[in-house]
Amino acid sequence: MTSVDLDEVAGRLYALPPSEFTAAREAEARAAKDAGDVRLARDIAGLRKPTVSASAVNRLVREHPDDLGELLALGGRLREAWEAHDAEALAELTRRRGELAGLLSRLIRRDTGLSAAAAAEAERTLDAAVVDAGAAEEVRRGRLAKPLSYSGFAPAPVPRARPARKPADPVGAAAEAKRREEAEARKAAERQEAQNAHREWVAALEQAVQEHDERAERVARLERKLAKARKRLAESTQRLQVAQREERHARQRAER
Length: 256
What we know:
Layout: H1 6-13, H2 18-34, H3 38-45, H4 52-63, H5 65-84, H6 87-112, H7 116-131, H8 133-141, H9 170-255
Helix pairs in contact: 2-3, 4-7, 5-6, 6-7, 7-8
């Protein structure tokens, strides 16, 4: 039986660039199967190839653990301040979040050379990790196969409650309050509609990227097979030409 487990193998695979993932996954699965661990081989084969944006975040985990760890820890404090409605803490944490997120975004673009769309996916993944504890844990493990997103409302500074002043005109104040409520309701509905549309396009983009990567990989495999086949054909052609030449010479000698 093999002495490795799925976590160990996954850790190695998700440290690789996407272009090397599939070949390495197949090699790991074969090694597990040859060692007699059929279940491990099946589990390894089921690991999804990471998108380029997910791989960039996995790379951050390994190459810049301190900066990323500070951002994730800050996310926990930001969520606590949000729940406590601590406007002063939220303002300071939000400022620091902007600094760290900007730094990590620059590192991603510098180290990986991602396209603008892929870099935006990686940045949304970091945003999700800041505001959602579950996403933070996924990022921390460094084994993302796809980018993450957060569809709820992100923590932002909340003003402290102040004692309400007695309105000089109760009727006018009530009307104004109603108008504000209606305006907020419209804004909330518009935000929700925009978020729903964004989620749909994120899913469509993820599917398109995955489909493109899989087909590009399939074409690359076919091209490699075609190149080998052409090489074998050239070798066969050379042997044929040699055999034809030697047969002709032998026939000429026999006829003399």
